């Protein structure tokens, strides 16, 4: 047996993409996966420590762990005309130095937010607490992520879509990178290739058996949302475009990392292709 720690968030899209494996619908080639569910910012922080073999991460923090982790091509989430939302109370006018609640220092939305609103004063909290913090006036505004973007208090309205921030910063024609997976470089390359292929198959099977998987996730109370809202959310963040990175998605990641370099968030520019598991090794191994 080859035990592998697989850390992901408890959000519906992550649960959906990994539980086809947990339910035994995918050949795991002798590997056993230990599912570890933690919120995305905790996963980002743990990735900085090198804690888990395979971990969900925010794309915006990957350059900080590139020497310890390779990027995986699968279980990716991008926005296409949508994404996190900056919300405020309808009776509130934001000043330049407004106080804003963000879901974590290392999240992609926080990276883009800080570039776009350099004078704002971020405070960081669990994403489930952000809506109430804005409603109660603890903060002037907040960035909603995950399923909270679909339904929020009627006293609130959208000040700015992070999608629009992305388009203004990156230009048109590119999807908004949000999150993906990374694998520890200390794992042998042949094992890393196996694990990536198993995860790719898991996301593929999840999409092929979406209705069945959603019903099972709801029946076992593994997701926070259900019914039509669950399907809508998964269509946004866990679809066929999540199975394997496309050329366009890689181009979007390159632009994200270029923006981070230009704004001094990391010391050297990076190109995504250089940090993926090399597919040519598998071709040579099987030739």
Describe this structure in words.
- Catalyzes the conversion of cyclic dehypoxanthine futalosine (cyclic DHFL) into 1,4-dihydroxy-6-naphthoate, a step in the biosynthesis of menaquinone (MK, vitamin K2).
- Pathway: Quinol/quinone metabolism; menaquinone biosynthesis.
- Strand 7, helix 3 and strand 8 form a beta-alpha-beta unit.
- The protein folds into two domains: 187 residues, D-Maltodextrin-Binding Protein, domain 2, CATH 3.40.190; 86 residues, D-Maltodextrin-Binding Protein, domain 2 (3-Layer(aba) Sandwich), CATH 3.40.190.
- It contains ten helices and eleven strands.
- The strands form two sheets. Strands 1, 2, 3, 4, 5 and 11 form a six-stranded mixed β-sheet that branches. A five-stranded mixed β-sheet has the order 8-7-9-6-10, with helices on both faces.
- The longest helix has 20 residues.
- With 287 residues, it is an alpha/beta fold.
- Helices cover 40% and strands 20% of the residues.
- Helix 1 packs across helix 6 and helix 3 crosses helix 5.
Provide the succession of SSEs: EHEHEEEEEHEHEEHEHHHHH
Overall average residue pLDDT: 91
Q: By CATH's scheme, which homologous superfamily of the largest domain applies?
A: Periplasmic binding protein-like II
Taking all Cα atoms into account, the compactness measure Rg is 19 Å
Q: Helix proportion of residues, in percent? A: 25-40%
Q: How many E strands?
A: 11
Oligomer: single chain
Shape: globular
SS content category: alpha/beta
Write the CATH fold name of the largest domain. Answer: D-Maltodextrin-Binding Protein, domain 2
- Strand fraction: 15-25%
Could you say how many structural domains there are in total? 2
Q: Helix segment count?
A: 10
Catalytic activity: cyclic dehypoxanthinylfutalosinate = 1,4-dihydroxy-6-naphthoate + dihydroxyacetone
EC number: 4.1.99.29
Active site: 146 (proton acceptor)
Function: Catalyzes the conversion of cyclic dehypoxanthine futalosine (cyclic DHFL) into 1,4-dihydroxy-6-naphthoate, a step in the biosynthesis of menaquinone (MK, vitamin K2).
